[in-house]
């Protein structure tokens, strides 16, 4: 039962027409292999050599969108927006790796990476689906980081007379969003990117902050979506923030782990997987 659920998720995520055998689902460019209750997706080796423009961060990727005229305008037609995005070709972008995502095996001395992905809807992504379908659909996404810009300070006071210095902020957050995955009510999916790292302990100590997961992808309509949110200041959290979240929609060719500073590759191939609880 779990396998059939995972295969259905894989079919949705990677556009497969359906399972070809009891143990594997395939499509041009990727196949999946079940390991216990987790489905690992292996990409076509040709994806490793796909030509793509490289961006070291979500901020750089957003700069490319602005070069093409910016995110879609409120009254911009489908045709006009697609025209602008026509030259937005394949790209590679570096995603965030938190300290907790890197594990050390005391017995073997090896390092591995295990990064969880989240449903983009939880970060503000709008699916365009009706409420019921949206609840039963997930959009796996990878964190591409954030940038925080200070916009000054002022002194604020709450209803009890307590005062605090409030910092005004503008926050830009970036996410790489993948194809939607339908799920039946009650099912819980966990999405992750994992791989073994070819790195010494000394280099890990020195280069930990420069490790990134790099995705080579094809942009797909609607290309980029923007969601705006606000954070009101409190005494315990004295920040007044305007938060813009940018969601770049894509299909994956290849995933690897690199040093964003030196370019050294720590994992030639990282794997994406779906697990059900």
From TrEMBL:
Keywords assigned: Signal
Keyword Signal attributed: yes
User: Which positions make up the signal peptide?
Assistant: 1-22
Protein name, entry field: Lipoprotein
Per the UniProt record, the lineage of the source organism begins with: Bacteria, Pseudomonadati, Pseudomonadota, Gammaproteobacteria, Pseudomonadales
């Amino acid at each position: 039962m779990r396998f059939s659920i995972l295969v259905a998720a894989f079919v949705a995520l990677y556009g497969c027409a359906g399972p070809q055998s009891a143990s594997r689902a395939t499509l041009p460019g990727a196949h999946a292999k079940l390991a216990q209750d987790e489905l690992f997706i292996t990409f076509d080796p040709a994806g490793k050599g796909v030509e793509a423009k490289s961006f070291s961060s979500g901020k750089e990727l957003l700069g490319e969108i602005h070069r093409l005229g910016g995110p879609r305008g409120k009254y911009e037609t489908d045709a006009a927006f697609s025209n602008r995005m026509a030259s937005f070709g394949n790209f590679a972008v570096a995603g965030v790796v938190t300290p907790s995502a890197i594990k050390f095996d005391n017995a073997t001395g090896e390092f591995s990476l295990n990064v969880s992905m989240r449903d983009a809807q939880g970060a503000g992504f709008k699916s365009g689906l009706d409420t019921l379908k949206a609840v039963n659909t997930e959009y796996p996404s990878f964190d591409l980081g954030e940038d925080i810009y200070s916009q000054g300070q002022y002194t604020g006071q709450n209803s009890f007379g307590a005062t605090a210095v409030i910092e005004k902020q503008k926050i830009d957050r970036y996410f790489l969003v993948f194809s939607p995955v339908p799920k039946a009510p009650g099912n819980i999916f966990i999405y992750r990117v994992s791989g073994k790292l070819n790195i010494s302990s000394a280099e890990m100590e020195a280069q930990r902050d420069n490790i990134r997961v790099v995705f080579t992808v094809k942009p797909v309509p609607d290309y980029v979506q923007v969601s705006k949110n606000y954070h009101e200041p409190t005494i315990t959290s004295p920040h007044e923030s305007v938060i813009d979240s940018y969601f770049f929609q894509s299909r994956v060719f290849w995933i690897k782990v690199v040093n964003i500073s030196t370019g050294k590759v720590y994992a030639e191939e990282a794997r994406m997987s779906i697990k059900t609880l």
